[in-house]
Amino acid sequence: MTGQEQADSAETERPDMDDKTGQIEASVGDRTDRESRIDDGYLGNNTSPQPIPAPLSPTPQTPPPHSPPPQTQVPPGAPTSPPKGGSSRGFLAYVAIVLSLILIIGVSLAVIFGGVDLHGVYTDKDQVAVIYVQGMMITGGIPDGFGVSTSESVCKYLRLAADDNNVKAIVLRVNSPGGSVAASQEIKKEIEKAKEKKPVVISMGDVAASAAYHISAPADRVVANPGTITGSIGVIWAFENKSGYYDEEGIEHWVAKSGEFKDMGADWRNLTADEQAYANEVVMEVFSMFVDDVAAGRNMTREEVLNLSDGRIYTGAAAVELGLVDETGNMYDAIDIAAELGNITGEPTITYMNKPSLSQLLFGGEESIGDISPYTGPGFLDSVRSAQPCLYELYMPDPADVPV
């Protein structure tokens, strides 16, 4: 072959070599692009892969005998299926825990704030029930622990203790300046009913005067501290005349009434002479009931009680000498006496029927007591006047004498 022919042949083969080189480069590029698209998860069904040259020496790879199955790659953001059975059990356990916490918290708050009747918790057969009478005695639905003691509450616990065969005796812990006539009469009546079933003993605290003494008189035994304030046997009905204030403020009243005494006690005028006489009659009528109850409860004559019933107070020690109290002692002395009267041998189980709770500590002070006027207040005088339709058996010290 001549040199010319060799040059022509080289020129002819050069394009062929260029074409083959281009095909190989395109094939390698397509393979690289395809592998990249497969890794990114974007290889679609419409992709037409270019033929890939087979490797020169393919070496089959044998998986290990116990290798785990290959994990399928989950695209980012794809929803995952919840575990079977585990989620429902976990939810039920969560609900049970929440309900248990709510129950525990509710019971705890009820016990702390005194809203739970703990009667019946004790199972001992030799019990002495202690019932507290604290604050001014009234009738009505005001909760205990607000500086008052309602006759409904005291009577309820008296009935529970009297009907409980495990309770052999009852102690009333009295710490009250008195209260309304109706409230004392209701409590006194329930004490007399309880006495028919088991002994009732009174334990006097700081003050057990007027209506508080009224409910104490019929008990089987009355125990007071030597310095207890008691007595104050009497009845009071106070009225207030604010007519001067209304005149200064230019306030006038016009009253339509069906009878002469219908607006008796209204604070825009003073009592008439007839109204004053009538008020004295009512007070003396109720006072006579008080005296008769004390005479019957303390086995005294009416004259003996009248001699002690000018409204004055007595210390516990003086009341023992006068026959109004049986002996001096504290609450646990009264409990021992009750256990003896109830024929309890050994140490009795003390059941506190309505023991003072946290709410009484929070709301029993003077500031909170004033919030529920007209029932109570320092010195009690202003509160009694604002509640003028009600008769009171109440020890009313001068406000200047009330200890701060």
From TrEMBL:
The keyword Nucleotide-binding does not apply. Residues 193-343 form the Peptidase S49 domain. It comes from the Archaea. Residues 50-82 have a biased composition (Pro residues). GO terms for biological process: proteolysis. Residues 1-86 are annotated as: Disordered. Pfam families: Peptidase_S49 (PF01343). Residues 11-40 have a biased composition (Basic and acidic residues). Keywords: Hydrolase, Membrane, Protease, Serine protease, Transmembrane, Transmembrane helix. InterPro entries: ClpP/crotonase-like_dom_sf (IPR029045), Pept_S49_SppA (IPR004635), Peptidase_S49 (IPR002142), S49_SppA_C (IPR047272). GO terms for molecular function: serine-type peptidase activity. The chain crosses the membrane at residues 91-116. Belongs to the peptidase S49 family. PANTHER family: PEPTIDASE S49 (PTHR42987), PROTEASE SOHB-RELATED (PTHR42987:SF4). NCBIfam families: SppA_dom. This is Peptidase S49 domain-containing protein. It comes from Candidatus Methanogaster sp. ANME-2c ERB4.
